Amino acid sequence: MRKISLIAVVILGFSACKNEANKSIEKPSEHLEAQLNEISKDTSNTKVSNNYIEVKTWIDDFKNFRQAVYTNDKAKLKTYFRFPIVGETSGIWSLMSFNDVEIAKRKAKYINPDLFYEEDLDEFPDGVFNADFVKTIMKIKTAQLFSKRQTETPEFTANGQNFKMIATYDDDEAILQLNISYSNNAVDENGEKVSEGEHNVIYIFDVIGNKRIFFKKIELAG
Predict the structure, then answer these.
(1) From which domain of life does this come (predicted)?
(2) Residue 197 neighbours by CB distance under 10 Å
(3) Per-residue model confidence as pLDDT tens digits over 49-62
């Protein structure tokens, strides 16, 4: 009888260890799913009748993001941000300028006026995604971006500048970059092209779980 009890204890102990091991194996996938749900609503639940497609991979979410930018769907655009955004490290305020009165109002309204809040996207949607961004992103070839991990648009001209968007995806870093590259047609006295005025505005997005994209920061170069 004592032997049977001892065997039962061993079996129960082995079963408990096995259950704990299974739980530990399941944790990463559960954590990822929770992260996706916590950050934002899963756009795979968005109805096609709302002009948004089912999200199976990050290129689908990019298409939905582009549609939201084009239609200025602020509610949808907000699902691509994790508010509040730290302005100093995100570079988001570098695209906008404020006079002294506007700065004073902001300081009076917010304890931390440097952060970029949800209501800021309501107030300054064109500041974040301007006309150049909208025009170029609509010309991105999504099939090429997905298959080759890079593509670029034709070049456009406005306000004396040429510009195009270069889109790249880094699998190792899970980063999507949308780089608006600006150049000009200016030449010096010898007829040589000058680089003055050339610059880049680079929008960087995190890709979570190979499925969702979220704004990370903006970098200026040149």
Answers:
(1) Bacteria
(2) 13
(3) 468 999 999 999 99
